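Complex 121.
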Amino acid sequence: MARRAFIVVIPWYAAILMGAPTFTKDVASILEKNCQVCHRPGEAGPFSMLTYEQTRPWAAAIRQAVKTRKMPPWFADARYGKFSNATALTESEIRTIVAWVEAGQVDQSRLGYVPGGPRQI
Ligand code: HEC
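Predicted structure with heme C bound:
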């Protein structure tokens, strides 16, 4: 058990030292602003992104969705009419999310993170 924790923790510290984005510092605010309005319980998104634990299992799909600009959806579809002013991600936001996923979805301060909640629109 201790050995397994060791193996998981070392690459995390390495990634942090190398300046890889972390969930709390870099990724959470992007999700709050652009994703959580739909990706939280009771909304259109099929899974929740309110916490690190909820987001991490979807990392590979999230990487794909932002790279291809499939998410956040940008359309005037009547089904999601009230969300039609959801913003597209900037290039730098996409780079941050992709880098976070590719560096192993680091989160250095999981325990202290309190989500600020979705953007009010
Ligand atoms: C306007 C509401 C809305 C917003 C904003 C939104 N999503 Fe989604 N998301 C959905 C819906 C609805 C689905 C399921 C249908 C689909 O896949 O198109 C979905 C599905 C997904 C999936 C599942 C895989 C896939 O490609 O189908 C991922 C991953 C995802 N969203 C990531 C994100 C990320 C990351 C953001 C923020 C950058 C985001 N979403 C913002 C509504 C939203």
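Confidence is low (pLDDT under 50) at residues 110-114.
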